[in-house]
Amino acid sequence: MFAFEKALVGHCSPTLSGLKPANLLSLSKADYPQLPVLIERYSRMLADKGISFCIICECGCRWLLLIYRRQMLWEQLSDPQVQALLKQAGYPVSQATSLEPLLGHLRGRLIDSEEFPHEIGLFLGYPLADVIGFCRHRGEDCKLCGYWKVYGDVESAKKCFALFDRCRANLYARLLSGSPLPELISAEAQAA
Fold first, then answer.
1. What pLDDT sits at residue 96?
2. Cα–Cα distance for residue pair 55/67, rounded to 1 Å
3. How many helices and strands in the chain, by DSSP H and E?
4. Alpha-carbon distance 155 to 91, whole Å?
5. Lowest mean pLDDT: which of 32-41, 88-97, 128-137?
6. Own/partner pairs for 69-72, CB < 8 Å, 24+ apart?
7. Strand partners, 54
8. pLDDT confidence of residue 186
């Protein structure tokens, strides 16, 4: 269980802290054979903190887990420019009155597409210009590479990356010093 919390904090601190709507976490099925049961437990534990879990793909020997803040993600995906890009990719944005149809479509794209669905960056809170740039340039020729590949505002991205680094270091240090995970999220979410 502590290994899961270390992975969660190490890879998802910006979401746990309320700085971005979602993060992805790839976990080995060999290390986490009972992940569905584990995330049910953590879903109950962290629901009042606004944290949700969704196994977005069960691929070969790995789980791909989406950790998200439901309200932040809904706001992100409700942006008209984001919706226009999702609609181009076949998402049912006009009928979606909740996240579930959009997450379901993303799951389908992960399973059925020959290519990775790069619009997933919109779910993760990446800037629209960077998601468009990544798709247009097929991941090449970015201006900066950090938490994502930057094609737009480099200075803003650098500040964001530094903030995410500080957030992760802070949460990780507190977790290792014995603070329970729900306490970390509560304190960080209020500070964010």
1. 74
2. 9
3. 9, 5
4. 31
5. 88-97
6. 69/15, 69/18, 69/21, 69/22, 70/99, 72/18, 72/20, 72/21, 72/22, 72/125
7. 66
8. 58
